[in-house]
Specification:
The complex is a heterodimer. Chain A is 55% helix and 16% strand. By secondary structure, chain A is α+β, with helices and mostly antiparallel strands. In chain A, a hairpin with a 3-residue loop joins strand 18 and strand 19. By secondary structure, chain B is of the alpha+beta class. The longest helix of chain B is centred in the C-terminal third of the chain and has 26 residues. The N terminus of chain B is likely disordered. The chains are: A alpha+beta, B alpha+beta. Chains A and B meet through helix 1, helix 2 and helix 4 of A and helix 2, helix 3 and strand 3 of B.
Chain lengths: 877, 116
């Protein structure tokens, strides 16, 4: 209460500072005049009375000062004074200030940029109610450690009915492209279908209207739209709830709008063409049923495999206990169905699903950005110390005039803070401006569908970081001035310098950190080169890929359409060859399927293709022949299998002529074996077997190898296909572009880019620091250099002398840096399983690069020393 | 910081209480408070302006006294301070506290050898 009153009156005081000042003046005048009046009344002469009264009052300025000191706002005012003083000082030395702000803007900017991504990936709470009790269920293959999305029906039933800790289970189908018709124009849109319990499990509340209930799934008449779709497609129409949307063939009532920023806990599939994982329309699915094939092996909603079930645990339940109970229940299911050795259901955090690989990498990058900041702070600390040496006399005067130590230290910290705030503001501004370019580099699949961007949190983080930096770089000089003694400050001639051990320690630290960063960048670069060097087994250059979904559900019509499209493309003069496939190497790996030969079961990806695919993709035939148009017409089950599939299916005999059956019991015979292609860069990719579709020709991608890969060809080909499928949107892209944009390429490129940038920045700052230190030393030893020259030292020997002396801290830094790399390797290896850190070559290269930068940085000021004219220097003294 | 109370002769920490007491008798301006204190104490407590005005400002901030501008007897404008209800309560509490402390100190000082 009292504190609040003090705070409020302080605010009033601040608001009415002028008024208070004049009031105080008048009060003091009244005091003086009354005092004079009283003294005259007591018989004093007017001039004597005035003199006595003045003595009594003392200095009005001092009295006012004391009164101003009452209350907290006075301290604020003095801080404000210090801020203005600092700004004036900095404005007087624009060179120093610009350098300092630039250093801060770059180093804080590095952190801001990374944090703008990392915040969403690592820290920001997920937009669900009580996200701690929310888990995704996935299937863990015990042998490989791989996690997959589809959970068998029997496990779902167990979770819903028997598991004591689970309150609700929500199911979602995979992304499904459906035609949305508005104003007589159809457009393919991403849709999800979810069960009634899905949004309830997430604890999400509708922005408008309602979400699904049990009856919606049966009726199939309603749809919920995303906030983005509401804004973009319906112009934020307030009466949206009465409207309908034509999804597929039927009109559906819009019953609700999802809140802004809602995020489906799902793996982003942006690398699969243009899927975003943020569907515009969400339909209601009826309760799940058991999928076909092996009984209970899949869960199906709305004809699609349900993926990533989401469960909410009861309050107080822990994940470990819930997992134990699930294990016990799952064991029962396994016994019942004879599923021993197959995958088991596990609870996963939604964050792990949303950002599958991004988390540890983001931590690493944040750490690297922090190191860059520390290197920058070391430079600033050195600059401040150097500058204060020039101001020692002024400091001495201030202390002698009664400035307290506290006040001086505070002034210096405030000066640092002024710089830091300016740096942080520039950093946020620069990141905001450059964010588009940055986010284009962010691999979506690794960092998910999170809303990344520069927001209030990022700005606050930058400002905090700036102030932390100010404490880091201003504390050392300020601490030095706290222990200053007045006398020597005033007496010592200006411009005399001593070599400080702190400056050398800063250099060592910078060198060590630069080595760590350069080494990290080198490792990232090598990983990137490694990925780029992987032999593909096919040639994506000059191949256009086209996706088109003609609006027909009839499988025969669909197949006929694709065949017609391939023929039309192949007939074009600018097209060398054309084909179609359901899986595309490095873009769409084929789905795993159980394939059976005469002896047993194996896993392979059954890929449906149309004739011309192999030639168009540029694959190599090892034995036998390719599939042809005759095979398609005959529909006799001819298959071409990859070498690795041959190894898996027929390890001990010739594959050519052998037979196998797919999971849908269709028999095939092998007519050709092709060299392996890189289907995906992830491990555990099933080996592909290529067959012709009998009836099922859904989801084909058309391919056309053009004679001259120019932009016009892409547009012409796209038009050709559009003409074949009027009213259906067609996506055409260069295969190589899609691959370059995919996560396995973008992730290492992103890391190499960011770490490379950081390493460059660190190297530059360190070199600048060394340059500054050596230049400073040389300048302060001009006289000594002149003397040495006069006594017969050669310029070359002087350069050697200076460089050698500058080198001691650098060598210490190198040793510390190498030790740091070895220590970090152990930490990083535990964090990043895929990272190969046993790479002495990279470390050696990093050491050489940093030493080279240090030598260059030290050489130039050293050469300056050798140009001293001894006569001039000695005369000047 | 305000100057020490040493020169004024006022026991440390009691100036606020004394001002409250003087104002409890009648509303007064700053000069009046100073002279009244000197009068009452026969010149033992000489409160200078450097101590008096910060103390008044502090009491006003804390809402123990309220200042209002009035004409003086010589027809000048001066700020007259009045004790507020909270000020009166604070004065009562501080006076009791002071009395009990003085009593306690007096008892200690009266203590003779052998007494407990």
């Amino acid at each position: 209460m009292r504190a609040l009153r003090g705070f409020l009156s302080g605010l009033r005081g601040l608001a009415r500072r002028k008024q208070h000042e004049t009031d105080l003046d008048e009060e003091l005048r009244a005091f003086f005049e009354t005092s004079v009046g009283a003294k005259i009344a007591a018989g004093m002469r007017p001039d004597e009375a005035a003199r006595a009264a003045r003595l009594e009052l003392g200095s009005p300025a001092a009295v006012k000062d004391y009164v101003r000191d009452v209350g907290w706002e006075s301290r604020l005012e003095r801080v404000w004074q210090d801020v203005r003083y600092a700004v004036r000082l900095l404005a007087r030395q624009p060179g120093f200030s610009v350098m300092a702000v630039l250093t801060l803007a770059l180093t804080i900017g590095a952190n801001t940029a990374i944090f703008s991504i990392a915040d969403a990936v690592l820290f920001r709470p997920l937009p669900y109610a009580d996200p701690d009790r929310l888990f995704v269920v996935r299937m863990l293959e015990p042998a490989t450690g791989r996690r997959t999305s589809g959970v068998p029906y029997d496990y779902i039933r167990v979770l819903e009915e028997l598991h004591p800790d689970v309150i609700t289970v929500g199911l979602r189908g995979p992304t499904f492209m459906m035609a949305h018709t508005a104003n007589d124009a159809a457009e393919w849109v991403e849709t999800f279908s979810v069960t009634a319990d899905y949004f309830q499990s997430l604890g999400v509340r509708p922005h408008r209207g309602r979400l699904f209930d049990g009856a919606d799934g049966e009726s199939g008449r309603v749809v919920v739209i995303s906030h983005e779709a509401w804004q973009r497609r319906f112009g934020g129409d307030e009466s949206i709830l009465g409207r309908t949307a034509k999804i597929g063939p039927s009109d559906r009532d819009i019953v609700g709008v999802l809140p802004p920023g809602f995020l489906f806990p799902s793996m982003s599939q942006r690398h699969l063409y243009s899927l975003t994982g943020r569907p515009d329309f969400i339909t209601a699915a009826p309760p799940p049923v058991s999928g076909g094939g092996v009984p209970g092996l899949t869960t199906v909603i709305f004809g699609n495999t349900a993926v990533d079930p989401i469960v909410r645990l009861r309050p107080g339940a822990t994940r470990a206990e819930a997992q134990q109970r699930l294990d016990a229940l799952a064991a029962g299911v396994k016994v019942e169905h004879g599923l021993a050795g197959t995958a088991v259901p596990v609870f996963d955090e939604p964050r792990a699903l949303l950002f599958p690989t991004g988390g540890p990498v983001m931590l690493l990058l944040l750490g690297a950005a922090g190191v860059v900041l520390i290197i920058g702070c070391a430079n600033l600390a050195r600059m401040l110390i150097a500058r204060k040496r020039q101001r020692e006399h002024e400091l001495g005067v201030r202390i002698a005039l009664g400035a307290t130590r506290l006040r001086i230290v505070r002034a210096e910290l405030i000066e640092g803070s002024v710089l830091a705030v300016a740096g942080a503001v520039s950093a946020v501004a620069a990141t905001t401006l450059g964010f588009e370019a940055l986010s284009r580099q962010v691999p979506q699949a690794a960092y998910g569908v999170a809303a990344i961007g520069v927001d209030g949190r990022v700005a606050a983080f930058s400002l905090m970081l700036g102030l932390l930096a100010a404490v880091l770089f201003a504390a050392l000089p300020a601490w030095r001035s706290a222990g200053l003694d007045v006398q020597p400050l005033l007496r010592r001639p200006r411009g005399r310098h001593d070599r400080s051990i702190q400056g050398q320690a800063l250099t060592s630290m910078q060198v060590a950190m630069a080595i760590v960063l350069v080494c990290g960048a080198g490792l990232a670069l090598r990983e990137l080169i490694g990925v780029l060097r992987v032999p593909l087994g096919f040639d994506p250059q000059g191949v256009v890929t086209l996706t088109v979904n003609p609006m027909t559900r009839d499988p025969h019509e669909l197949k006929a359409f694709y065949v017609r499209a391939v023929e039309a493309l192949a007939a074009r003069p600018d097209v060398q060859s054309a084909g179609a496939s359901r899986a595309l190497p490095l873009v769409l790996p084929g789905a795993n399927e159980h394939v059976q030969d005469e002896t047993g079961q194996s896993s392979a990806a059954v890929v449906h293709i149309l004739p011309g695919f192999f030639e168009t993709a540029g694959m190599r035939l090892m034995r036998g022949r390719w599939l042809t148009r005759d095979d398609l017409v005959a529909d006799a089950g001819a298959a071409v299998i990859s070498e690795s599939a041959a190894m898996v299916l027929f390890p001990d005999r010739e594959a050519l002529g052998a037979t196998f059956t797919s999971s849908s019991q269709r028999p095939f015979h092998v007519v050709g074996v092709t060299a392996d292609v890189q289907m995906s860069l992830e491990r555990h990719t099933p080996p592909p077997v290529y067959v012709m579709p009998s009836t099922d020709a859904r989801g084909m991608t058309l391919l056309a190898r053009v004679r001259a890969p120019v932009g016009a060809a892409l547009m012409d080909i796209r038009r050709e296909v559009s003409a074949l499928a009027p009213g259906s949107p067609v996506t055409a892209r260069w295969w190589s572009d899609t691959i370059a944009a995919s996560t396995p390429y973008r992730s290492p490129r992103f890391q190499a880019l960011v770490l490379g940038g950081f390493a460059g920045l660190a190297l530059g700052l360190t070199a600048l620091g060394i340059f500054g230190t050596v230049a400073f030393l040389v300048a302060s030893r001009r006289r000594e250099m002149g003397l040495r020259m006069a006594l017969g030292a050669t310029p070359a020997s002087l350069v050697r002398l200076v460089v050698r002396q500058a080198f001691a801290p650098i060598v210490i830094g190198v040793i510390l840096g190498v030790a740091g790399v070895y220590w970090l390797k152990r930490v990083a290896q535990a964090q990043l399983a895929g990272l190969d850190t046993r790479d002495p070559l990279t470390l050696a290269a990093a050491v050489i690069i940093v030493i080279a930068a240090a030598v260059i940085a030290a050489y130039f000021p050293a050469r300056h020393a050798s140009r001293v004219d001894p006569a001039l220097v000695l005369r000047a003294e | 910081m305000a100057p020490s109370d040493k020169s004024t002769g006022v026991v440390r920490g009691t100036l606020d209480m004394l001002i409250l007491k003087v104002l409890a008798l009648e509303p007064m301006h700053g000069y009046g408070v100073g002279t009244r204190l000197a009068q009452i104490t026969n010149g033992v407590f000489q409160v200078n302006a450097g101590s008096l005005f910060p103390a008044l400002a502090r009491l006003e901030r804390d809402g123990l006294i309220a200042g209002e501008w009035h004409a003086t007897e010589n027809n000048r404008r001066a700020k007259y301070y009045t004790l507020s209800r909270r000020g009166r309560a604070t004065l009562k509490a501080q006076t009791e506290e002071w009395r009990s402390q003085v009593d306690a100190i007096a008892r200690v000082l009266r203590l003779n050898r052998g007494e407990a």
